[in-house]
Structures are given as C-alpha cells and as structure tokens.
Specification:
The protein is of the alpha+beta class. It has one domain (5-305). The protein is globular. The chain contains seven helices and 18 strands. The strands form three sheets. Strands 1, 2, 3, 4, 5, 6, 11, 12, 17 and 18 form a ten-stranded antiparallel sheet that branches. Residues 255-306 are annotated as: Disordered. Residues 259-268, 277-299 have a biased composition (Acidic residues).
C-alpha cells in the first residue's frame, strides 16, 4: 500500500531522531503564538496539538503523531497521589543550543571552498555541517531550548505502572523559539548539508534571527525567525516495562531499548509502534513474513511445547 510521502517523511524523521537520541522528533513542530499577552496554539493542517509533559497515550503507527488519552495532571487522575502538588512540571536550565544528528551523520568542517560558496552559513553564530551516506539522515538544531519534565519522576513512576499499562507517558518536552530540521533524501553518493543561524537584536523577551541552510539532497525546515513563537520539536516517552523476545529485532521487529535510565527501574524508553523502516519510510517486511502479533503467538506456542 502506497503511503502519503509527507506522512512517510514524518515517520522516518521521527524514527531516525528517536534512534539517535531516545527522544521523539516532530517533523512539523506545532507552535504557540504569543498574541497580546495571551498564548494561542497554532496547529498546521493535519497536525494535532503536540504532546505536553504528563500526557499519556500512544503514537499513531502510520503518522507518528502522539495520540493523547489523558494527562496525569488531570484532576480526576489518581487524586490520592496529589501529582500536581508533589510532581509538577519543572524547567531545566536553558541550553545555548541542542543538536541531534542521526546515525551515519559525520561532522564536516568549513573549508575554504564551502566558505566561499556559502559565506552566510560559515559566518553564522550557530552553525553545523554534516555528510551522510546513501541512506536517509536527519538533524535537529535548537536554539536556547528549555527542557520541561516531571519533577521527581523516579518517585512517581512506580505508582503509575498499573494505570499506564500499554500506554506511553510524556516525561519531558523541549520547547524553543527557533529550530531547524533536516531530512536528507536517498543519494547515489554522500549527501552534504549545513545550517547556520545569525542572531539579531532582541525582540521583546526573545530573540530573532536568520536561518541559512544548504543540502545537496534533502529538505530543511526552519522556524522562529520573527521571535514570536514557541515550538515543541522534541519530547521523551516512557512506558511500564514489557518483556520482548530478543529474536524480534532479528526479524525486523522492534526490540527492547539498549539504553535504560537508572532512576526509574519500572519504566523504559517507549519503542515506536512500527517495525524497522526502509529509506522511503515504509516498514520492512519481517524476514519470515510474520507480523509482531503472529510472532508473539508463535513464542507462546513454543513455550507450551517445552
């Protein structure tokens, strides 16, 4: 079945960034506009309001969008835990920049030839240049991002295991005023890409600037040049631990994450609901033609025989 190219690109971008950083990327970040002292969420066509800290639900297997079932900060969610009072959302210190580069991306320098061809990028305050192999690649560049997360989550999460079974919990969200996203295309040779941000004078309480970008094969998406918006390009998802057979990864199915945080042993990084993707963003058929559910049935039958 053919898929919408934009949908495929969004899912592939999400997948590449998740693999590199254990965080989920939004190919079309929703934005919060500041209008007359009030905030207004602006959602691009086809995009739901993005995930916020404390939301729980699942990722849509086709679109990679987070589908919210509720929030742990809802008044009727386990009121006996007093979550809002004891585990409210807290902000981390802002970072000057935050960059994620997908696997196979290699940092390149700004040599004389490139500087002469793209002086606006080479002279930027914040800049980067990368090369990628024949496969697809992805980059996230955030300026002055602030990560918001659940306060003292290691004390709270063990109490949510039963309630959030089979659901993903948004444990942190990056918000920023300026972002740049790259998704490269398939290339016969290496893909070369670079981006630069020239910062201008302050506008109100924020910054504005100009993005300059180049790619030999791919698409850059940038935002925030006017300094009037807040974007949500990255977020983290965790779920109660589930057991996954090791053979699943060999069949092209998602397996248990390799990296675990030590502060919440009962939860693990949420794994994407789709199987391994090809360079077009489509799921690769499993090696024996079985889907995940059939594979689970097969393992259950094997246990009974043993």
């Amino acid at each position: 079945m053919s898929r919408n190219p934009e949908t495929s690109s969004g899912r592939l971008f999400t997948d590449l960034i998740q693999e590199a950083s254990m965080r989920y990327g939004n190919w079309s970040p929703n934005q919060q506009m500041k209008v007359g002292g009030y905030s207004l969420i602006v959602v691009r066509p086809g995009l739901m309001c993005g995930a916020q800290v404390g939301d729980y639900g699942k990722l849509n297997r086709e679109t990679a969008e987070f589908e919210k079932d509720g929030s742990i900060y809802d008044e009727d969610f386990l009121p006996e835990l007093k979550i809002k009072e004891n585990h409210d959302v807290e902000e981390q210190q802002p970072e000057d920049e935050f960059i994620v580069v997908s696997r196979e991306g290699k940092t390149q320098g700004f040599d004389a030839d490139f500087t002469a061809a793209y002086p606006g990028i080479a002279s930027s305050h914040i800049k980067g240049r990368w090369s990628f192999g024949r496969g697809r690649g992805a980059v996230v560049v955030l300026h002055k991002p602030v990560e918001k997360m659940i306060k003292d989550r290691s004390m709270l999460l063990p109490k949510l295991i039963d309630t959030l079974k089979d659901r993903a919990l948004v444990t942190s969200v990056f918000e920023c005023g300026m972002f740049a996203l790259l998704l490269t295309q398939k290339a016969e040779q290496l893909s070369d890409a670079a981006v630069g941000l020239n910062l201008l004078e302050k506008v109100g309480s924020g910054l504005n600037g100009t993005w300059n970008h180049y790619t030999s094969s791919g698409v850059w998406r940038c935002g925030g040049e006017e300094g009037k918006s807040i974007f949500y390009p990255l977020y983290s998802l965790r779920q109660p631990k589930v057991q996954r057979p090791r053979w699943k990864r060999m069949l092209g199915l998602r397996g248990s994450p390799e990296v675990q945080d030590e502060d919440d042993d009962e939860f693990e990084a949420y794994q994407p609901p789709w199987n391994v993707l090809d360079d077009d963003g489509n799921e690769i058929p499993t090696s024996d033609g079985e889907d995940e559910d059939e594979g689970e049935d097969r393992e259950d039958n094997t246990r009974e025989l043993n």
